[in-house]
Amino acid sequence: MSVTSRRRFAAIALASVAVLATGTACGNDSESGDGPITLVVDVFGDQGFGYEELYKQYESEHPNVKIQERGKGLGLGDYNTRLTQQITAGAGAGDVVALEEGTIVQFYAQADKFVNLADHGANDLKSNFLPWKWEQGLTPDGKVLGLGTDIGSMAICYRSDLFKAANLPADREQVGALWPTWDDFIATGQKFVAADKKHKFVDSATNFYNVVLMQTAGAGSGHTYFDKNNQLVVGSNPDVKSAFDLTTKMISAGLSNHLKSFSNEWNAGFKNGTFAAIGCPAWMTGVIKGQAGDAFAGKWDVAKAPGTGGNWGGAFLGVPKSSKHPKEAAELVKFLTSAKSQAEAFKKVGNLPSSPQALSDPAVAEATNDYFSNAPVGKIFAAGASELKPVYLGPKNQAVRDAVENALRSVEQGKAADAAWQDAVKNGEAAGK
Amino acid sequence: MSSLETTAPPGLDPSRSRRTARRTPSGFPWLTRLDLRLSPYLFVLPFFVIFAIFGVYPIFYTVWIALTDRSPLNATISFVGLDNFVELLTNDPQFWNAVWNTFGMFVLSTVPQLLLALMLANALNRRIRGQMFFRLAIAMPIITSTAVVALIFSMIYARDFGLANWLLDLVGVDPIDWRANRFASWFAISTMVDWRWVGYNALIYLAAMQSISKDMYEAAALDGASRRRQFWSITIPQLRPTIIFTLIISTIGGLQLFTEPLMFTSGSGALSGGSEGQFQTITMYLLEVMNTRFRWGYAGAVALVLFLLIASVSFVNYLLARRISSDK
User: Fold this and answer.
1) What are the residues facing A150 on neighbouring strands?
2) What's the pLDDT score for residue A384?
3) What would the pLDDT profile of A382-421 be if each residue is shown by its tens digit?
4) In which element (H, E) is residue B17 found?
5) Distance from CA of A104 to the nearest CA of B (A)
6) Interface contact B46-A413, CB threshold 8 A
7) Do A262 and A391 belong together in one domain?
């Protein structure tokens, strides 16, 4: 080896080490105090949160702030896995992160990794949120972990053209009157599948189950798989059992299309229009519109859900401690969760506001959705929202929910309901350990 | 140092001067010694730095974490000794279900995969028209991404609008719910694995076949041995070491099967591998424990047991390989 090439090798070796060294150092892109700062907002879901216009408005009002959004199109499960790692590692999370209703509880335990929004004047905004939504954003010791964006509320979205073809009423008032209770809903479904052999009545057991469970638990125990002391009660909470039983009854009546929620086949089910109704929190209207597409515009409609009220889903915005601009990020959170912004997001993607002011804003209260045959979605979804009682979800809610949902899917695949319930309890207990 | 070449005093033979210059480096002899001692280590350093960060540290961290109850949900970490391992081995049917699935799919995919590869290689070893084209064509699937393969095959095996069920329908067979039935799901996932790896193994076999002496075949042909007889009595015995090699490679890949079964379902809870874990592999279970249940310590224990499983299966393979080569 000549001296020259040896020297070149040494240079390469040194360069590699240098690259390694800088590789570990990067990520601390320091910004000068007066230059524009970039705030990263992490959201999830196929439709995102509908904030694009709001970012533009905020940027024009705050020339020193640039906003970058990540995560649109990312499923909640993947999003939450990533966020958990980022929060635990204390690096990599956005300046503003979305926390879903079912997963915010998990972050109560890591509240010290989040900015207490009360330090940035959040307590003055308490009246801007429905009381139970405000409570959900608080940790047990009273820190403000997140401010509410939207709530799920509950309705039934249905295909009026298929209802009509099956000799059922198609008008949303009359459809709502068909099912005062969930048993009536199943009876209606039986009439539907008797008249229409080509379509199923609902998309899946799990969607039906989640809607029923959240309503039953809201009216009953106020919790699902975990009680408020985070004790696992999947086998002993009567609300879980009754929602499970109602669902297996629905399956054995042959109403389910057996589509796994948020799977490709579920999406294909929307595109091919293979089922007639779906349990419909407000955010689901955005999902339906996105998945079913223009071909089904005007064929969907919204009616009130059986039973009284209920809520499934909804999110919060929080600020991780790892943010370098906690003050600015907190201001952005306050802006994005303001009544006006919530009304704007409702207009964009149908997420129902969690702010009473936004709910009574004519832009929301009188809103109709032209995709859903001009249904008065604002009125339908807002109707029960203020009287809702919150449902407490434990920190490992998602893991236990997966286990119970899998048991319901196995019933769809032919397993006996009793055996599936044994599975649900056994696997749920293993998952919630 | 290249500058030395130009500093030769005038009047001397340049080639001589270069030689002397190299023998006695002027200036910094200690630097040269340092260069000789240190440089080799410097050259290999980048590998070891990367290996230490991404290889050694995670191994020790996994061992440590497996002895704790670490979880992002716990504010403190407490040492729990071997509790995680005891629970895993004695009280976790879901883990053993995953082990069973992993080995089942391994057998179901590897056996046809290697047989098909052998037959393909044998066919391509003959003089056929467009030989080069076919040899290239069988290797093509290797360059596709596993995720894409899995995605497309999941569409083929879709329950409602899938190609496979449509073809079954054409011949009058009832549609199959590929994700509900354990064997159907194993079969579907095995076809994904095989589609991608048959060509790879066939290429290896083909290369080995070409190194078999033609004389043996000629002699056999003169003795009146048929093509089939030649294949079983000459080709297969000559290929033994290669077959062992492909078997070991397939074992390592098969026990870590992950992308195909994960992508086989989409939507919520894909890690659970079917409603009753029909096709959940060990690696999927590991991630479910870590990312859905947040039991990082327990996940560490799962990872270590998986390591032991792979090590022991590889050891069995090694014994097998030694036995067969000593037979020769």
Assistant:
1) A353
2) 67
3) 876 766 778 888 888 989 999 999 999 999 999 999 999 9
4) helix B14-23
5) 12
6) no
7) yes
Size of interface A-B (CB pairs under 8 A): 126
Among A3, A87, A402, beta carbon nearest to B1 = A3
Question: What's the CA gap between B135 and B124, in Å, rounded?
Answer: 7
Q: Per-residue pLDDT for A51 more than 90?
A: yes
Closest CA of chain B from A320, distance in Å: 15
Shared domain check, A196 and A307 = yes
Same domain, A260 and A326: no
Taking CA–CA distances from B3, the nearest residue in chain A reads A4
Q: From the centroid of its chain, how far is CA A133?
A: 14
Q: Do A20 and B49 touch (CB under 8 A)?
A: yes
pLDDT on residue B54: 94
- A145 and A57 within one domain: yes
Average pLDDT over residues B188-201: 93
Min Cα–Cα distance to chain A from B42, Å: 6
C-beta atoms of A9 and B39 within 8 A: yes
Greatest alpha-carbon span in chain B: 98
The interface predicted TM-score of the complex, written ipTM, equals: 0.81
Tokens 């196929």 found at: A46
DSSP H/E element including A100 = strand A96-100
Confidence of residue B127 (pLDDT cuts 50, 70, 90): confident
Residues from B contacting A (CB-CB < 8 Å) are 1-2, 35, 39, 42-43, 45-46, 49-50, 72-75, 92, 94, 154-155, 158-161, 177, 180, 265-270, 272, 274-277, 291-295
β-bridge mates for residue A157, sequence order: A278, A302
Give A66-100 pLDDT, tens digit per residue. 999 999 888 888 899 899 999 988 999 999 999 99
Contact between B279 and B185 under an 8 Å Cβ cutoff? The reply is yes
Q: Examine the domain organization and report whether A320 and A214 are in the same domain.
A: no
8 Å CB contact between A430 and A403: yes
- For residues A348 and A267, membership in a common domain is answered with no
Phi, psi at B292, each rounded to 5°: -100, -40
- The CATH fold of domain B93-327: MetI-like fold (1.10.3720)
Q: Report the C-alpha gap between B99 and B94 in whole angstroms.
A: 9
Count of domains observed in chain A: 2
Contact A431 B293 (CB under 8 A): yes
Q: In angstroms, rounded to a whole number, what is the distance separating the alpha carbons of residues B11 and B25?
A: 21
Q: Which residues contact A429 (CB under 8 A, 6 or more apart)?
A: A232, A234, A235
Looking at per-residue confidence, does A30 or B212 come out higher?
B212
- What is the reported pLDDT for B5? 45
Q: What residue ranges do the domains of chain B occupy?
A: 2-58, 93-327
Residue of B nearest to A16 (CA): B46
Contacts of B105 (CB under 8 A, 6+ apart): B186, B189, B190, B193, B254, B257, B261, B279, B281
Q: How confident is the model over B19-44, as a mean pLDDT?
A: 75
Question: Where in the sequence is the domain holding A122, given as residue range(s)?
Answer: 37-152+314-365
Tell if the CB–CB gap between B293 and A433 is shorter than 8 Å.
Answer: yes
pTM of the full predicted structure? 0.82
Residue A13 within a domain: no
Give the pLDDT score at A386.
Answer: 65
Average pLDDT in the A321-340 region? 95
Q: Is residue A12 part of a domain?
A: no
Residue A25: both structure tokens together: 């150092």
Kindly list the residues from chain A whose CB atom is less than 8 angstroms away from the CB atom of residue B267: 75, 260-264, 266
**What pLDDT, on a 0 to 100 scale, did the predictor assign at position B247?**
85
| Segment A195-242, tens digit of pLDDT | 999 999 999 999 999 999 999 998 889 999 999 888 999 999 999 999
Q: How far is CA A38 from CA A61, A147, A225, A323, A345, in A?
A: 15, 21, 40, 11, 22
